[in-house]
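Now produce a polypeptide, keeping tokens residue-aligned:
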Amino acid sequence: MITAFEHTLAFCRNMDEKDPLRKFRGQFYIPQHHEREVVYFTGNSLGLQPKTTQSYIQQELDDWAKFGVEGHFLAKHPWMPYHEFLTEHMAKIVGAQNEEVVMMNQLTVNLHLLMVSFYRPNSKRYKILCEAKAFPSDQYALQSQIQFHGLNVKEALVEIAPREGEYHIRPEDILEAIDRHKDSLALIMIGGVNYFSGQVFDMKAITEAGHKAGAIVGFDLAHAAGNLKLELHNWEVDFAAWCSYKYLNSGPGSVAGAFVHQKHLKNTTLPQFAGWWGHDKKTRFLMDSTFVPMETAERWQLSNAPILSMAACRASLAIFAEAGMEALIEKSKQLTAYLEYVIGEINNEKNNCLQIITPKENRGCQLSIVANGYGKPLYEQLIANGVIPDWREPNVIRCAPVPLYNSFEDIFRFGEILKSLL
């Protein structure tokens, strides 16, 4: 890790020249602003398009035109087992066994399907613990699951909030809440990374504490998959779900992923909402009326694969496989540390008007910044000057220097533009 940073263009270009991953930037389309590449810091919201995506999708369109329905068997990448082409690369990214991972549906759909199986409240254990100000879709999902079981949300949903005057949740407060509710806790469902603050939660410690309390533990990894080193299998997480359009660059609204730990896969008594693509594939086309679940995470599938979005996902996963998560995480740490350094340099000149609320010791590549006294107009001015971060109410600008396509020079340019606007 480089720690002797310099706030100069020459330093940044030297770092980029030495970057072993520098070639990957050229494999993505970067939006233009006045005929120059923008500084794109929004990979935590929508990743950029790999240049190979079109050819991956075109192959399936060509095979559809050529074979029609027979493309399920005769396509270059047959559609019948198409989801399986994504499994190995995706499993490596989230630290799982192949049998524990499946790509299917959308993120919140997957969370609902998994909670059907893993949120089983009774008169004693009925509470769900989550972080306060989780992404709204998670909050809606948790509330509706509680209501579906005829329970009172105010009684059953335990939300852990930052302390007064703080932006992130102290790890010890999470563990204390788990212990305090241990006798009534059915499920812990937390985002791996809080979308607002960028705080990374200690998933291993939370899982251990949850299991000690007798609860099931699941995670929403929308802002974690492709961003952090994950070890879902080794941490013994019960279930998880994630989208693929953020750090995984699969395109807007693309197919999502799901994880179920190996220890649950052969438990045929688990309740679930069933569909024919989760039926034992050896007998699926016998069209029997009795559901026979596969003994893999595939059992939670409902319908056959969305081939075109999966083709886009395959294009991105091939790049991840070539780059390697270890190398990506190392570069991510350097880029994020340099962004922090540049913000500090600007603060030295501008009376400390910028506040990074993302905890230094628990973060991925996202930094959430409060620009005191400036607000949303500053974000809008950044956009107008060729920088694309994103805005989260009431007062946060999120910046995510993604290691696959962002550079040190991007961060230098961001710093110069930001400084000129303050």
